[in-house]
Amino acid sequence: MGRSPTKQMQHKPAPRQATNRQLDPKLRDLVGRYDHVSGLPNRKQFIEHFHELAQAARPTLIMLVTLTDARHYNEVLRALGIAFCEDLVRCGLARLETLVDPDLTIFHVSLLSFAVTLPVDDTAVVPPVADAIAHAFAQALTIDAIPIRIDVGVGLVPFNPDTGPAESLRAVLVAAQDSRRTNRHVSFYDHKTDAAHLRAFRILADLPRALAADDQLSLHYQPRINLQTGACHAAEALLRWTHPDLGAISPAEFVPLVEQTALITPLTDWVTQRALQQNRSLRDAGHALRISINASPANLSERGFHDVLLGHCDAAGLAPDHIELEFTEGMLATNAGLAIAQLDHLRSAGVDVAIDDFGSGYSNLSNLANIPADVLKIDQSLVRPLTQAGDDDFLLRQVLAIAQGLDFRVCAEGIESEFAFNHLRELGCHEGQGYFMARPMPADRLADWLEAHP
Ligand code: C2E
Ligand code: MG
Ligand code: MG
Hints:
The protein is of the alpha/beta class. It folds into 2 domains: 20-189, Alpha-Beta Plaits (2-Layer Sandwich), CATH 3.30.70; 203-452, TIM Barrel. The chain contains 17 helices and 17 strands. Strands 8-9-11-12-13-14-15-16 form an 8-stranded mixed barrel, surrounded by 5 helices. α4 (70-80) packs across α5 (82-97). The chain is elongated, with a radius of gyration of 30 Å. One magnesium ion binds next to loops.
């Protein structure tokens, strides 16, 4: 049997001493200039080469060949092991070497990527060697008699000494990755797609500061109207972010990014606490309103999410039936068991659960009856086109019939016209939200709006 974890922690390793396995520093510097798998000059030497090139007068392209994407590489690694993968890299290089002018140096700049600088006449034209490489790698590589299909990417960026070697390598790597989405498997660096990635990265990097600041994030509220009586008993909390440099960023842009990261936990927490505090103030001012909060797939897969939510509710002096939780149904695919258990728990405590954006994306009809929910929100794409009598409402009526047949309370989103409002009421839809009745507004304006719409 192995030692217990406590015993292992008590064991202090002896201070590290140089061993006979360590290289002499001079030798280490030399070896550190070459890739140990291919024996080629590595990124260090590419950087030196880049600085030498800065003196050259000839127009030059930097070409990066990435043998395959990291996910595919990891699958091969898992199935066939490290030695096989090293053979794969060497075999890919052997094919590359038959295509690249032998007078040019190939640099092995990262595990799967090789860089070459090509003197050209015109840096805006794809050099024939790039197409030849893409073409050659359409054939599988055979290693130990196993043919491995690989997904080569060839990126190109004009050499510009002002850009510097690190940024040039990043740009050409982006180009090589983007090239896999094209039939040709060769791409120039495109500032526009890269700018979108950089913006996404910046949004995620800046969110923690926004959560800590008190002047960047806020909530707007959109009234939810009972279509049969015209009364407003509920409002949806919608997040707004005013970034100090980027200005207003739509939740439709940043929420999907945040959902891919652990930041979704503090974000939903921020929204919940703020929405509940503001709901408390509204109630104190005499407006008994249920507040609906958008949760993300990841939130429902977090253990203990329901306890945190009910704890916030209690701390704000609200009852669970003062809140509704909205989520999109597509998410239940991931960790469905835990998500459903938490929804069940919340519902039995009194929280209403709503399925958001129903009828958009991939709504799973067979799953619908198994989801513990009270409300079904019909996606605006089915509602917004309704502007006058005769507009096609076939899908809308079918979705409504399904929702009513399964005993959901139905809320239509995106009511923009008087016609849509009346039509949905006649079809028996219970509730609605939309610009026709009210746009989302800050909390203080909501109080005024409620005064004016008793
Ligand atoms: P959603 O939850 O389906 O919210 C409804 C969206 O439709 C809101 O966009 C709202 O402003 C907009 N809307 C309402 N009525 C109309 C109308 O009549 N016409 C049109 N064209 N649009 C209308 P918003 O505020 O930009 O939010 C977009 C999405 O971002 C939300 O869709 C929701 O999925 C997400 N989101 C917003 N706030 C949060 C939040 O606090 N947490 C999470 N996880 N997601 C949020
Ligand atoms: Mg919603
Ligand atoms: Mg929606």
